[in-house]
């Protein structure tokens, strides 16, 4: 049951009190069980990115199920039900992209740090990847076949915060072409994670 509830929280900010409530367990007990799920690689807890490293430690992390196939099975979802529940589709698609990027990062010659970004004004970025030299590449995930400049709102805010550390920003979407959206900003097909892509 705890893992099933964790599946509903995938790609959301980690709120241990919300997860604990249905089980009438203390937050501390639930946290201990959740740590076990993390230790056996069923969930991943992603810290928040901030250009002040001290603040990273106090900002709310995000949780991802590490196997979105398992998550859909736990939730009893099929393709039709996911199409009808666009919110859950978006959550699981974000977790899928996160897991694929995390897997591919193991091929990188240096260790990459994975984060998410959210500020007090509700600007958000799904995935922030930081290299050893501090350069960051950030990605939003969109469960749609079209992209507009509004989809880069969070990325542009993060770009302004990162300054010289900014590498590039990407919106992954359900299209088939790479599209430029300003300096160091691109829309890229989700399928590019495993196949060939076409530039506009």
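^ structure tokens above, recovered residues below v
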């Amino acid at each position: 049951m705890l893992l099933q509830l964790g599946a509903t929280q995938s790609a959301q900010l980690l709120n241990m009190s919300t997860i604990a409530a249905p089980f009438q367990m203390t937050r501390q007990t639930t946290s201990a069980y959740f740590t076990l799920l993390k230790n056996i690689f069923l969930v991943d807890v992603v810290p928040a990115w901030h250009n002040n490293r001290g603040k990273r430690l106090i900002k709310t992390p995000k949780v991802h199920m590490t196997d979105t196939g398992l998550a859909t099975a736990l939730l009893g979802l099929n393709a039709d039900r996911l199409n009808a529940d666009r919110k859950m589709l978006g959550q699981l698609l974000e977790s899928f992209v996160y897991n694929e990027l995390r897997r591919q990062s193991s091929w990188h010659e240096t260790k990459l740090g994975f984060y998410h970004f959210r500020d007090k004004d509700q600007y958000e970025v799904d995935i922030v990847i930081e290299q050893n030299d501090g350069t960051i590449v950030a990605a939003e995930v969109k469960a749609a076949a079209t992209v507009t400049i509004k989809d880069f709102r969070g990325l542009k805010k993060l770009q302004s915060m990162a300054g010289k550390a900014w590498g590039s920003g990407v919106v992954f979407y359900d299209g088939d072409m790479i599209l430029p959206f300003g300096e160091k900003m691109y829309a890229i097909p989700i399928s590019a994670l495993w196949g060939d892509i076409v530039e506009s």
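The helical segments are 2-8, 16-20, 27-39, 53-56, 68-74, 79-84, 86-105, 153-162.
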